[in-house]
Write a sequence for this structure.
């Protein structure tokens, strides 16, 4: 328990209170008194050391205030904007075939001529493009379901359709300056002996500069040269 104030301490407190409540002009300032309950709390706080229970209450109040502040901040934070939906998958358009075939329709059709049709077309498509078969005629013996071949001729009512003219494949040529003896032997009229002579001529003269030099190789006459000149190069 705190001991009662001594007369000296009481006088000092009254002097301080007088200096606080009195203005510079000597007029006293009115200080409202607190209600008894708050006055008791103030006196208890200012005159007594806080107890362990009081400290716990203050800590609990501080923690509760901190939690309420955090909850307020969390609720006041703006909600994240939703992500936009992914774009719908698009199926790439299937490219249309650009290849075509050119055919000649002749014979007993309404408008014979040359027509260009898409690749994969059939004989019946060619007859339709030519206006169809003339009245009284028959497309026999044509196979109307056969696929068209580029460059062919379809003859209607003449007994048969002319077969397409095959293009002969280009025969491979042999380089006289780099060919091996085995490659030289693949040429028409050239055997092992003649292939060796061609190789020896090439090594002796530093290579061929023209195919006409084959005439200088022993064993190659005009007839053999005519067979070789379209099959060799330099």
């Amino acid at each position: 328990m705190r001991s009662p104030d001594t007369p000296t301490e009481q006088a000092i407190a009254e002097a301080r209170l007088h200096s606080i409540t009195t203005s510079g002009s000597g007029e006293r300032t009115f200080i409202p008194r607190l209600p008894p309950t708050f006055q008791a709390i103030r006196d208890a706080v200012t005159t007594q050391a806080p107890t362990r229970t009081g400290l716990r209450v203050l800590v609990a109040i501080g923690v509760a205030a901190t939690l309420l502040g955090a909850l307020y901040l969390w609720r006041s934070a703006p909600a994240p904007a939703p992500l936009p939906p992914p774009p719908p998958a698009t199926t790439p358009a299937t490219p249309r075939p650009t290849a075509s075939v050119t055919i000649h329709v002749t014979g007993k059709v309404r408008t014979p001529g040359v027509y260009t049709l898409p690749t994969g077309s059939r004989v019946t498509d060619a007859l339709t493009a030519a206006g169809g078969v003339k009245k009284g005629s028959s497309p026999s013996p044509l196979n109307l379901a056969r696929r068209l071949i580029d460059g062919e001729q379809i003859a209607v009512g003449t007994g048969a359709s002319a077969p397409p003219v095959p293009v002969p494949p280009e025969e491979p040529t042999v380089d006289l300056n780099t060919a091996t003896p085995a490659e030289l032997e693949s040429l028409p009229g050239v055997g092992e002996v003649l292939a060796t002579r061609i190789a020896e001529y090439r090594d002796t003269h530093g290579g061929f500069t023209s195919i006409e030099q084959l005439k200088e190789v022993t064993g190659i006459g005009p007839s053999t040269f005519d067979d070789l000149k379209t099959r060799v190069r330099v």
Strands lie at 100-107, 113-118, 153-156, 174-175, 232-233.
